[in-house]
Every structure is written in C-alpha cells, then in structure tokens.
C-alpha cells in the first residue's frame, strides 16, 4: 500500500497541477470588462490630449509664422483613418451591448 501512494499522487496530482496552471494562463490572457472600460477611457483621454496639442500648436503657429510643428499635422486624412476605424469598432461594440 505504501508504494501505491506515490503512484496515486503522480497520476492525480500532476494532471491537477498542469490543468490548474493551464486554466490560470488562459484566464490571464483574456481582457476583462474592466480592462475594456479602462482602454476606452485611455482612448478618450488620448483623443482629448491630441486635440489640446493641436490647439496649442495652432496658437503658437499664429504667433510665430516660422513655427513648424514636430507632430503629425492636424486633420491629415492618412492620420485620421486609424482613428475612424477605432471609432467605428467602438460604435459597433456599443450597438451590441
């Protein structure tokens, strides 16, 4: 009987440990609803900060005609495409809820 205990521990304990950590790994890899809310808040904050930066650059450019902004130019079509795509995806997600 004493020889059976390590064998039982191997056949029951080892699969349990493996399955436990596989489950932990899969749950850690998913985005929770709290994560989605945080990402949406961060997106909105970044959008507001971008608009503020555009305003500051326009004000500086109006005072100093030699000013060349180092950032992406305001309202260039190629720059706005990814933002429109993200806005569309957020709107679709909002429709499904």
Throw out a few tags for this protein.
97 residues, mainly alpha, 3 helices
Task: Provide a descriptive summary of the structure in words.
The protein is mainly alpha-helical. It has helices at residues 4-28, 33-63, 77-96. The longest helix is centred in the middle third of the chain and has 31 residues, at 33-63. The radius of gyration is 27 Å and the shape is rod-shaped. The mean pLDDT is 81.
The tally of beta strands, per DSSP, is: 0
The helix/strand order is HHH
Tell me the Rg in angstroms.
27 Å
Biggest beta sheet summary: none
Give the distance, in angstroms, between the N- and C-terminal Cα atoms.
Answer: 58 Å
Give the domain tally: 2
Low-confidence stretches: none
In short:
With 97 residues, this protein is an all-alpha fold. 78% of the residues lie in helices and 0% in strands.
Give the SSE map.
Elements: H1 4-28, H2 33-63, H3 77-96
């Amino acid at each position: 009987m004493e020889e059976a205990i390590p064998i039982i521990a191997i056949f029951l304990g080892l699969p349990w440990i493996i399955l436990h950590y596989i489950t932990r790994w899969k749950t850690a890899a998913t985005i929770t609803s709290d994560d989605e809310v945080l990402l949406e808040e961060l997106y909105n904050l970044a959008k507001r900060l971008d608009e503020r930066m555009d305003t500051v650059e326009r004000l500086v450019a109006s005072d100093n005609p030699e000013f060349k902004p180092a950032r992406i130019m305001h309202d260039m079509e190629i720059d706005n495409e990814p933002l429109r795509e993200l806005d569309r995806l957020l709107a679709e997600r909002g429709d499904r809820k």
